[in-house]
Amino acid sequence: MDVSFINRSRHVGQSYFSSIFTTLWAFFTVIPIVYRIRPKLILVNGPGTCIPIVIASLLLWILFLINRPKIVFVESICRVQSLSLTGKILQYLPVHILVQWPQLTEHYPKTQYIGRLV
C-alpha cells in the first residue's frame, strides 16, 4: 500500500482569497503523485483537498500521460439542501457525483442518488 500526503487546499477559517494560493500549491504537489500512481479509480469526498487531485488527474489524462481514471465524488450525508462548494465545483467536470439525499438530484441534475453510503 502506498500512502502519500498532500497539502490542504484550505484550512478552517482561511479566507477564500488566500485559499487560491494554497489550492494551487496542493495542485502542484499532487501532480507527481497522481502520475506515479496512475489510478484507475479515484474515490473522493468532502473537503476541497480532493479538487487538486481531480484536476491533476484530468490534466494528466488530457496530456496523454495517464489513462483516464473513473472519478467518483461522494457528497457528505450532512448536505441535505445543497451541494458543498466542492460538489458545486466538481459538477462542471467529468466526475460522477453521488449524493446521499434523493431531493438533491432535483436541484443538481448531474448528481446521482443510489442510497445512503455512510
Automatic annotation (TrEMBL):
It is a single-pass membrane protein. One of its GO terms (biological process) is dolichol-linked oligosaccharide biosynthetic process. Keywords: Endoplasmic reticulum, Membrane, Transmembrane, Transmembrane helix. The chain crosses the membrane at residues 16-35, 41-66. One of its GO terms (molecular function) is N-acetylglucosaminyldiphosphodolichol N-acetylglucosaminyltransferase activity. The keyword Nucleus does not apply. GO terms for cellular component: UDP-N-acetylglucosamine transferase complex. Belongs to the ALG14 family. This is UDP-N-acetylglucosamine transferase subunit ALG14. It comes from Adineta steineri.
